[in-house]
Amino acid sequence: MESASIPVRPSRSRADVAREIISKYGLIAILLVLPVAYGIQDLQDEGSLTRLATNIKDGLSNGAIWALIAVGYTLVYGIIELINFAHGDLFMIGSFVAYSLIGTIGLTVGAGTAELFFGLLLILFITMIATGTLNTMIERVAYRPLRNAPKLAPLITAVGFSFILQNIGLLWLGGSHRGVPDLINTQEDYVTIFGVPITHGDLLALVVTVPLFFFLINFISRSRIGRAMRATAQDPQAARLMGINVDTTISFTFLLGGLMAGAAGLIYALYQTDVWFFSGFTAGLIAFTAAVMGGIGNIKGAILGGLIIGCIQQISDNRIGTEWTPAIVFGYLVLILVFRPQGLLGEETREAG
Amino acid sequence: MSTETPRMATKPRGLKLPRKVGPFELSTIVAAVAILVAIFVPFYFDSGSGFMNDATVALVYVVMALGLNIVVGFAGLLDLGYVAFFAIGAYTMGWLGSTWFSGESIHIGVAEQLSSQPGIHLNWLIVLPIAAIAAATLGAILGFPTLRLRGDYIAIVTLAFGEIIGRIAINGDALKIAGQPLTAGRQGITPVDKIDLPFLEPFTSLELRHWYWMALALVVIALGVSFALRNSRLGRAWIALREDEVAAVAMGVPAVKTKLLAYGTGAAFGGMSGAFLGSFNNTVNADQFQFYFSILILGMVILGGLGSIWGVVLGAIVLTTINFYLIPDVFNSIPSKLGLDFDTTQITFAIYGFLLVIMMIIRPEGLIPERRRKQELHDESEDALVAQAP
After folding, report:
1. Phi/psi at B211 (nearest 5 deg)?
2. Do A1 and B387 touch (CB under 8 A)?
3. Least CB–CB distance from B163: residue in A83, A151, A326
């Protein structure tokens, strides 16, 4: 399945340069279509951009969740070039763990601030560890035995595990949506800036994701194991020769991705106050779109992509209709892959280029 | 996997079945017997029985699995959105063979009682090629953006396309073109005209044998096309692209044309099956066109063996048996006997998922492996090293 890279043409004609510019700015232009169109419409109808700004603010909070999931895709893809299809469902399991823990610990609406803070912090840690461990185990069972198999093989086991996780969710909490107690009064305004209400839910997304991203980026770029991960991503054989335990490093990558998915699960449960066994499928696809948009394999790209997809999704939910949102997000995915497979921040890779 | 190679090598040769019996290949004889048995099976079952219903559906699934096998097995393009072509075929049937377009009144080759009804009513034999062509066209269009991509990106793009088509099917009742909704969403377009062959009475839902034989005819067509294509220049081009795209292109294989033909041919079978099932189920309902369905068909191809025609037929029959018989009837009471509170029907897809994982790890070449792919999967020496390098 492996093939040599197509060599870059040595001489660059004017057409090549034009194509490059279209590929570079075309995607940005496509991304700006929705906000600009509705911005103009808002200015004409209401004379202000408050509605669009609210959409974008909601989009950024939602996008933080997609970004956390997208990081998991991008980490795994970066290191073993596998689309971890089960990742969305791992996130769903995360939201289920969080839901169950809220019941177990006994947090209820109206709990005191300190109680709530430490309770949620504990739940966050347990959820993250649970999904992280689960992801590592899936890697051990489903992907490691297929390390040398053709590339289709681990992708197919990933699809298989996606179904298995989905059915575990179905048996766990049943087929219907489950309401999560609204512990933090998600929809309640905290402050209002320029007529845009910032709610408790937005604050939660901000408080959880920003430190996590900060930690993650620093971890990958500074720590010893982070360096081992980057080395393995570049060249597994050379990394092995340099004394890096490639298997452990790959397991660790899955662990990190799982941790992020768990955090996303908790925020989702508290923010949407609703968990459902099927939420993982759509979430996974949206997050994958985000990872591809940012440039798969690139962590900052995944975060950026997640935030952008969040905004698109929110605008589409609010203006076009929730039932069309998946179609619109996937439409964007196809457009990106056609016009700029390497994404916004990504390098040309062998696979995409 | 490393233990596999020596075992294959030390296998005593004397146990091998003869490849030829008289002037015929053994496989040809087995195939002829299998098809003959399939023709005579209905005489032993009640014409309206559940078995005939399941057997008919199984045969249609065989057609779809053979179609997907061309895309995934022959050409190596992992397609996770095969349901889109099924949907197009079914909607072609729904649009051209029901009272859906009530403003129109077009009747071609249909029985008398239908000619007084409003809507477009074409004979099924006219709808069938239209459905095939529509699906093939869509397949080529969907294939086009994936041409620049390789490997798992194709899987995601096809999956996204499948989801978009599914969304359009579900929300199509709100999509009005000149006041006419596109689909009936979850309500379903119903009733759909029955198959009406010349010189015969129109099919009815009471006499399922006719449907069965019609489905069997489709299977035979799909088998014939599959075998003809596999041994053709085009089939070799697909395999060459699957094995190594760069080398194939360097050898003069036109990548664009070859890949689009794979998508188109595979999709045409999906469209034909859709046209059949639309008429057979008497409804074209958006809930039929979910992602699960793509995986069900893909599961058949993988279970049987990617690229292996008889393997795919077997895979489709096995998985349909699991789906319609073993899970709901045989194993259904097992969890409750173990004191667990669920039915096996609830975990149908976990069972499929488990099958996919197990097959990939233990026997990635499938039940009846294709010779070339088996070599590829068990040739440790060279490929393993290449696969390790980035």
Report:
1. -60, -45
2. yes
3. A326
Indicate the pTM of the whole model: 0.82
What is each CA distance from A129 to A21, A183, A249, B278, B302, in whole angstroms? 44, 22, 17, 48, 34
Yes or no, beta carbons of B364 and A149 under 8 Å apart: yes
CA nearest to B64, candidates B290, B268, B363: B268
Q: What is the pLDDT of residue A10?
A: 54
Give, to the nearest 10 degrees, the angle between helix A14-45 and helix A299-315: 40
Q: Are A349 and A297 in contact (CB under 8 A)?
A: yes
Rounded to 5°, angle at Cα B318 from B317 and B324: 85
Residue A192: half-sphere exposure toward Cβ, Cα within 13 Å: 8
Predicted-complex ipTM score: 0.77
Contacts of A331 in chain B (CB under 8 A): 160, 164
Q: Where are the domains of chain B?
A: 47-289
- Which DSSP letter does residue B18 get? P
Measured CA angle at B8 (ends A143, B75), to 5 deg: 55
Domains in chain A (CATH in brackets) are: 48-339 (1.10.3470)
**Given the DSSP bridges, would you call strands B119-122 and B105-108 parallel, antiparallel or unpaired?**
parallel
**What are the tens digits of pLDDT across the range B336-345?**
777 777 777 7
Q: What is the pLDDT of residues A213-239, one digit of tens each?
A: 999 999 988 999 999 998 998 888 899
Token look-up 């925020």 returns: A267
Dihedral angle, C-alpha A26, A28, A31, A37, nearest 10 °: -90
Per-residue confidence (pLDDT) for residue B71, from 0 to 100: 92
As a whole number of angstroms, the distance between CA A201 and CA B130 comes to 52
Contact list in B for residue A82 (CB cut-off 8 A) is: 152
Q: Per-residue DSSP letters for B82-118? A: THHHHHHHHHHHHHHBBSSSTT-EEEES--HHHHTSS
What secondary structure does DSSP assign to A267-326, as a single string? Answer: HHHHHHSEE-TTHHHHHHHHHHHHHHHH-TT-HHHHHHHHHHHHHHHHHIIIII-GGGHH
